[in-house]
């Protein structure tokens, strides 16, 4: 593809990554700690995070309501499957993407009049509105949700085939990997295009971007809709994996937070980061439950480690010039550097705590 | 003959009659060359944290006690049981699949209705038996999985407790005295379903009944005063609530503070789920009529039925709780599977397949400390449901039910194959 020249090392890494992704169903057979449905769900959420990242990375807009599009995609799939008995996977996917795109067009139009905090809060509000609406509609199954088990085969048909449960899960997973790769390539082209450059300009300075003739409002709206399309595709995949959609796991505002967190965890300055973040977070949440009752704290701890130790995220830190590489080099040169790192971390924590105490003091009016 | 003795010992242990067990010699007699030696791996998913843990932990403790008693009686056909517990959260399908991948012989749970609906079709396709502890939504076996093979549920379901509630209200107040009703129910599918069944049933039983108020506070809402004010204004004869856990505590405390109980009779299907949280003055002021799904430890009366007393003592000494119907849903789910499996072992003369265990569960009757239960042929557990006046017991240090009425499942649930709405509609 034009503009997509990989170095030899990058090409090797890409092939290894793809092989690994395709090997997951086999790995899941070998060990109970890797679960196909968990990795699959991670990929779906990661895909939504890739969409969100278009806004986050380039236009510097933080959306707190991206679960709305994920949920719209999931519910569009479930509605067609359970109420109209549509079983063709291609139709379900297409309908989900269109529905989410439409939803993004409306929500985007209404919330993009504002920037910064007000934009974030508006997306949050629309997301919660959608959640409350679905929760209250008995037609949509209220809190119990809707099944995605259409037709006589009791499942969506992939290429018109009715498969047994295992084959369905594996084939759907392979398709998801293909979707993910294609979506990443499309996103890559998009951000390297003049449109992507314009979005970067908007992110850096809206007013100046307007001065040089970029139709800011229209471009940002377009970016919002595109990110919604990704969310819709992701939601449809989720619905077909779970074969049941409930408002809590797809529309609740904490899911929006998770999608945002995935982008940051994986490295929101990278293309691949959000996808990796999605798989890692869903895996962490699932695996955490086997180890501790306080597994919710686990994600918090990981976030703290990321923010303080690896602000570029997982993928960002591994890239050239990333935190991990630099540290590894320093360590190879002089292992005693660990001591100074520990001291640095301690002093950073001390000063963070000091700042926090000062903030609390000033809030309470104590001097 | 010896195997039969083993089965009896297990059934007796689960009913809690340890005195019937003898010296434990049945341990060896149960082993058969066709039964593997390794322990039975079982998985339970329930809410171990968050507000729903009020119910979830009770179910967990119940299941653990059942497993302990099974192992004390020499296991199922000589095989010890091991129970692995995970938090259900929103991952019902994943948790179940993880259990299957880990090679679990049986799975139990969940608590959530929506999660149960998502999971039941998966159970049918993975073919590893699951006995649900709760997840009481009526549509589970009426619409979601209409012809189940591997999916079962122990807990009495929504229709049973709402029909019981309506009958109880009419019986205590008299059909002529129930003319107006109100509802304060949790704002999700369960709360709406419960009130709609209650309305349908009480209209059939008491004739011309007017609904004067319907309020739906969100789950875990900290303020229910607007609903209480409405009830105070309307003064309905009966106020029905399916609030559970922490919401019961909020509703009843705020209702007491605003004198709601002077204006209406509160009837609740799951008020007793908050038994470990309510305070004396609130309970005394409310004089509420409460249900307790499949189990109330004081009935059958403990001086005539020792297993109930023993269970309460065990729950108190091990976990410092008064066992509720959710304790019994955990206990009963394990007991249903273990006694049915023991029966299947005796019949097939070796360890039965999942399908054989499932077949053996259908129409299977067994005892627990709550009395006799049946796993109906439509895979729905059937137990007596209990309703009584909630009053304070200083001996127990918690609310108890007085003047308890029991409802036979046949009186409060449709026959297999008939949908609930149609059944209630057919009453004359």
TrEMBL record, chain B:
Is Signal one of the keywords? yes
The record's listing under InterPro entries reads: BCAA_transport, Leu-bd, Peripla_BP_I
Q: Does the keyword rRNA-binding apply?
A: no
Superkingdom as given in the UniProt entry: Archaea
Keyword tags: Signal
- Residue ranges annotated for the Leucine-binding protein domain, each copy included: 40-388
The protein's matches in PANTHER family, at most eight in alphabetical order, are given as: ABC TRANSPORTER SUBSTRATE-BINDING PROTEIN, LEUCINE-SPECIFIC-BINDING PROTEIN
Q: What is this protein called?
A: ABC transporter substrate-binding protein
